[in-house]
Amino acid sequence: MTAVALRVRSLELRDLSAIESIEKLAYPTPWSRSMFASELAKPTSICLGAFEGDELVGYVINSRYVDAWHVMNVAVAPDRHRRGIATALLRRLFELTLDDERRGYTLEVRISNVGAIRLYEQLGFEARGIRRGYYTDNREDALIMWRDAAAAQ
Predict the structure, then answer these.
(1) Active-site residue among 23, 59, 105, 108?
(2) Which band of pLDDT confidence, cut at 50, 70 and 90, is reported for residue 149?
(3) Which of 26, 126, 131, 151 could anchor a disulfide with 75, C-beta 3.0 to 4.6 Å?
(4) Radius of gyration of the chain from Cα atoms?
């Protein structure tokens, strides 16, 4: 397979079908199309997609709250895992929000998702708590992670 340059851009409504395709492969309880459309339309959200050519290969959905950016959804096409796509998306988020010094970043991740936890730790996130029974498909706990706005990039 020939390497294709990765391009990160803001997601648009025209990307919804591709987003849904990845979401259904990535999660046992995928977000609905309307959930994605709602986040894409919110002026307080930053929704980024990673593209190889014209193909969406990953995305990150973020919403701004009073004291934090909430990383709500990160997904990469299963056949593109371990290629730095999620890292590129999150680093771009950090670049876009660099001037927003008073907000940190938070997210929840399944406690069993060791690979994702390791990735988030490498990007400066730290474990801050547990949400018991957070995931509706199996009542798995979520690890709450936090990254200070000034964390090393």
Answers:
(1) 108
(2) confident
(3) 26
(4) 15
Domain 6-147 sits in CATH at: 3.40.630.30
Name the catalytic one among 23, 59, 105, 120. 120
Six-digit token string for 3? 């390497």
Kindly state the tokens that stand for 63.
């919403």
Residues contacting 28, CB < 8 A, separation 6+: 137, 138
**Known active-site residue 59:** no
Residue 120 designated active-site: yes
Tell me the per-residue pLDDT of 52-81, one tens digit each, with 9 for 90 and over: 999 999 999 999 998 899 999 999 999 998
